[in-house]
Amino acid sequence: MPNEPSETTPPGAPARRVTMQRQGPILVDGPVEVELEDGTTVSSDRFRVALCTCRRSRRYPWCDTSHRKRV
Asked: Higher pLDDT residue, 5 or 25?
């Protein structure tokens, strides 16, 4: 259930903010660890990261703005 605490979340830990954008990346307050489909883990210690949702990024899973239309 979305409102139940996670088994991996320490008690009293602040919630992570995730910002959804209709035609852009998912913004996550960092630092973060991302587990990829193949089981590998990548991490970033930045204060906010942009996760690619279109899979066009050359730096996947990090967004490099490849989703923007080129004119």
From this structure: 25
Tokens of 37: 């489909």
Amino acid code (one letter) for 52: C
Contacts of 49 (CB under 8 A, 6+ apart): 27, 28, 30, 32, 62
* DSSP one-letter string for 8-29: TSPTTPPPPPEE--TTSPEEEE
Instruction: Please state the pTM of the whole predicted model.
Output: 0.72
Residue pair 36/53 in contact by the 8 Å Cβ criterion? no
- The torsion angle over the Cα atoms of residues 12, 36, 29 and 10, rounded to 10 degrees, is 10
Nearest to 32 by CA among 67, 62, 64, 65: 62
